[in-house]
Amino acid sequence: VKIAVPTRIAIDMDEVLADTLSKALRQYNSDLGLSITKQDLAGKKLRDVIPEVHRRQLEGYPHDPGFFRDIDVMPGAQEVVKQLATHFEVFVVSAAMEYPSSFGAKFDWVQEHFPFIPARNIVFCGSKSIVTADFLIDDHVHHLEVARAQGLLFEAPHNVNEAWTPRLKSWEDVAQYFLK
Ligand SMILES: [Mg+2]
Protein backbone atom coordinates (compact mmCIF):
# COMPACT_ATOMS: atom_id res chain seq x y z
CA VAL A 1 0.00 0.00 0.00
CA LYS A 2 1.35 3.39 -1.01
CA ILE A 3 1.06 6.10 1.59
CA ALA A 4 1.00 9.81 0.84
CA VAL A 5 4.49 11.25 1.16
CA PRO A 6 5.50 14.88 1.44
CA THR A 7 7.65 16.52 -1.21
CA ARG A 8 11.24 15.52 -0.51
CA ILE A 9 14.19 17.87 -1.03
CA ALA A 10 17.69 16.40 -0.85
CA ILE A 11 20.45 18.93 -0.18
CA ASP A 12 24.17 18.48 -0.74
CA MET A 13 26.66 19.61 1.90
CA ASP A 14 29.94 20.85 0.37
CA GLU A 15 29.56 24.10 -1.58
CA VAL A 16 25.80 24.12 -0.87
CA LEU A 17 25.25 24.09 2.90
CA ALA A 18 28.95 24.35 3.74
CA ASP A 19 31.48 26.83 2.36
CA THR A 20 34.10 24.13 1.98
CA LEU A 21 35.97 25.95 -0.77
CA SER A 22 36.70 28.92 1.51
CA LYS A 23 38.15 26.56 4.11
CA ALA A 24 40.36 24.85 1.52
CA LEU A 25 41.48 28.24 0.16
CA ARG A 26 42.28 29.55 3.65
CA GLN A 27 44.31 26.47 4.48
CA TYR A 28 46.09 26.30 1.15
CA ASN A 29 46.89 30.02 1.05
CA SER A 30 48.17 29.99 4.61
CA ASP A 31 50.27 26.85 4.13
CA LEU A 32 51.92 28.28 1.02
CA GLY A 33 51.77 32.04 1.57
CA LEU A 34 49.48 32.61 -1.42
CA SER A 35 46.29 34.60 -1.92
CA ILE A 36 44.11 32.69 -4.35
CA THR A 37 40.50 33.89 -4.18
CA LYS A 38 37.16 32.48 -5.33
CA GLN A 39 37.25 35.02 -8.15
CA ASP A 40 40.34 33.25 -9.51
CA LEU A 41 38.39 30.02 -9.78
CA ALA A 42 35.63 30.78 -12.31
CA GLY A 43 35.02 27.61 -14.28
CA LYS A 44 37.82 25.79 -12.44
CA LYS A 45 38.42 23.63 -9.43
CA LEU A 46 41.08 24.62 -6.92
CA ARG A 47 43.22 21.69 -8.06
CA ASP A 48 43.21 23.18 -11.60
CA VAL A 49 44.92 26.40 -10.55
CA ILE A 50 47.52 25.08 -8.15
CA PRO A 51 50.95 23.94 -9.18
CA GLU A 52 51.20 20.20 -9.80
CA VAL A 53 53.76 19.88 -7.00
CA HIS A 54 51.20 20.97 -4.36
CA ARG A 55 48.26 18.88 -5.54
CA ARG A 56 48.93 15.94 -3.29
CA GLN A 57 49.00 18.26 -0.28
CA LEU A 58 45.76 19.95 -1.33
CA GLU A 59 44.05 16.64 -1.95
CA GLY A 60 45.08 15.45 1.50
CA TYR A 61 43.17 18.20 3.36
CA PRO A 62 39.73 16.56 3.24
CA HIS A 63 41.20 13.31 4.55
CA ASP A 64 42.13 15.07 7.80
CA PRO A 65 39.25 14.15 10.16
CA GLY A 66 39.16 17.71 11.52
CA PHE A 67 38.93 19.43 8.14
CA PHE A 68 35.13 19.47 7.93
CA ARG A 69 34.49 20.41 11.55
CA ASP A 70 34.97 24.20 11.41
CA ILE A 71 33.70 25.06 7.95
CA ASP A 72 31.49 28.16 7.61
CA VAL A 73 27.82 27.81 6.76
CA MET A 74 26.82 29.23 3.38
CA PRO A 75 25.14 32.62 3.84
CA GLY A 76 21.39 32.23 4.31
CA ALA A 77 21.44 28.43 4.39
CA GLN A 78 20.35 28.03 8.01
CA GLU A 79 17.32 30.32 7.74
CA VAL A 80 16.13 28.93 4.40
CA VAL A 81 16.64 25.25 5.25
CA LYS A 82 14.76 25.81 8.51
CA GLN A 83 11.83 27.22 6.54
CA LEU A 84 12.02 24.44 3.94
CA ALA A 85 11.91 21.86 6.73
CA THR A 86 8.54 23.20 7.90
CA HIS A 87 7.00 22.69 4.43
CA PHE A 88 8.94 19.77 2.98
CA GLU A 89 10.79 16.62 3.92
CA VAL A 90 14.45 17.71 3.92
CA PHE A 91 17.41 15.35 3.68
CA VAL A 92 21.08 16.30 3.80
CA VAL A 93 22.92 14.04 1.35
CA SER A 94 26.70 14.02 1.05
CA ALA A 95 28.84 11.80 -1.17
CA ALA A 96 31.07 11.44 1.88
CA MET A 97 32.41 8.05 0.79
CA GLU A 98 35.14 10.02 -1.02
CA TYR A 99 36.51 10.92 2.44
CA PRO A 100 35.60 8.14 4.88
CA SER A 101 37.52 9.81 7.72
CA SER A 102 35.14 12.79 7.42
CA PHE A 103 31.93 11.04 8.53
CA GLY A 104 32.10 12.02 12.21
CA ALA A 105 33.05 15.65 11.59
CA LYS A 106 30.43 16.06 8.87
CA PHE A 107 27.71 14.57 11.06
CA ASP A 108 28.68 16.81 14.00
CA TRP A 109 28.74 19.84 11.69
CA VAL A 110 25.19 19.24 10.47
CA GLN A 111 23.96 18.67 14.02
CA GLU A 112 25.60 21.89 15.19
CA HIS A 113 24.42 24.18 12.41
CA PHE A 114 21.16 22.48 11.40
CA PRO A 115 19.92 21.05 14.73
CA PHE A 116 16.34 20.92 13.40
CA ILE A 117 17.35 18.21 10.89
CA PRO A 118 16.90 14.83 12.55
CA ALA A 119 19.80 12.39 12.36
CA ARG A 120 17.70 9.98 10.29
CA ASN A 121 17.53 12.65 7.56
CA ILE A 122 21.32 12.81 7.19
CA VAL A 123 22.67 10.49 4.49
CA PHE A 124 26.27 9.71 3.59
CA CYS A 125 26.51 7.87 0.31
CA GLY A 126 28.85 6.98 -2.50
CA SER A 127 27.02 7.48 -5.79
CA LYS A 128 24.12 9.90 -5.69
CA SER A 129 22.26 7.55 -8.04
CA ILE A 130 20.87 6.14 -4.78
CA VAL A 131 19.10 9.45 -4.13
CA THR A 132 15.35 9.29 -4.73
CA ALA A 133 13.77 12.63 -4.03
CA ASP A 134 11.59 15.20 -5.72
CA PHE A 135 14.48 17.67 -5.83
CA LEU A 136 18.24 17.51 -5.36
CA ILE A 137 20.17 20.75 -4.77
CA ASP A 138 23.83 20.14 -5.62
CA ASP A 139 26.82 22.02 -7.07
CA HIS A 140 27.93 19.06 -9.22
CA VAL A 141 26.19 18.31 -12.52
CA HIS A 142 27.50 14.74 -12.40
CA HIS A 143 25.46 14.14 -9.24
CA LEU A 144 22.35 15.82 -10.68
CA GLU A 145 22.62 13.65 -13.77
CA VAL A 146 22.34 10.35 -11.86
CA ALA A 147 19.97 11.18 -8.99
CA ARG A 148 16.32 10.24 -9.34
CA ALA A 149 15.22 13.78 -8.68
CA GLN A 150 14.71 17.11 -10.39
CA GLY A 151 18.20 18.55 -10.23
CA LEU A 152 18.78 22.13 -9.14
CA LEU A 153 22.34 23.33 -9.72
CA PHE A 154 23.66 25.43 -6.83
CA GLU A 155 26.17 27.90 -8.20
CA ALA A 156 29.83 27.45 -7.28
CA PRO A 157 32.91 28.90 -8.98
CA HIS A 158 33.69 25.56 -10.66
CA ASN A 159 30.26 25.28 -12.35
CA VAL A 160 29.67 28.81 -13.67
CA ASN A 161 30.13 27.66 -17.27
CA GLU A 162 27.93 24.57 -17.01
CA ALA A 163 24.68 24.66 -18.96
CA TRP A 164 22.37 23.07 -16.37
CA THR A 165 19.01 24.67 -15.60
CA PRO A 166 17.53 25.53 -13.22
CA ARG A 167 20.51 27.22 -11.59
CA LEU A 168 20.21 28.69 -8.10
CA LYS A 169 22.85 31.32 -7.32
CA SER A 170 22.30 31.65 -3.59
CA TRP A 171 20.09 30.53 -0.73
CA GLU A 172 17.90 33.54 -1.55
CA ASP A 173 17.28 31.88 -4.92
CA VAL A 174 16.43 28.61 -3.18
CA ALA A 175 13.88 30.44 -1.01
CA GLN A 176 12.46 32.11 -4.11
CA TYR A 177 12.18 28.74 -5.91
CA PHE A 178 10.39 26.84 -3.15
CA LEU A 179 8.76 29.35 -0.83
CA LYS A 180 7.53 32.32 -2.86
MG1 LIG B 1 28.91 19.62 -3.23
Spans of 5+ residues with little confidence (pLDDT < 50)? Answer: none
**Strand-residue proportion:** 15-25%
Silhouette:
globular
Q: What's the tally of helices?
A: 7
Radius of gyration of CA atoms, rounded to a whole number: 16 Å
**How many E strands?**
6
Distance between the termini: 33 Å
Can you give the mean pLDDT? 95
Order of helices and strands: EHHHHEHEEHEEH
Largest sheet: 6 strands, parallel
Q: Classify the secondary structure makeup into a structural class.
A: alpha/beta
- Which small-molecule ligands are present, each listed once? magnesium ion
Placed side by side, the strands forming the largest sheet appear as 3-2-1-4-5-6
**Percent helix:** 25-40%
Entry summary:
This protein has 180 residues and is an alpha/beta fold.
Walk me through this protein's architecture:
This protein has 180 residues and is an alpha/beta fold. Helix content is 33%, strand content 16%. It is built from seven helices and six strands, in the order βααααβαββαββα. The protein has a six-stranded parallel beta sheet. α6 (141-146) links the parallel β4 and β5. The longest helix is centred in the first third of the chain and has 13 residues, at 20-32. The termini are far apart. The mean pLDDT is 95. Bound molecules: magnesium ion. Residues 12, 14-16, 138-140 line the site of magnesium ion (MG).
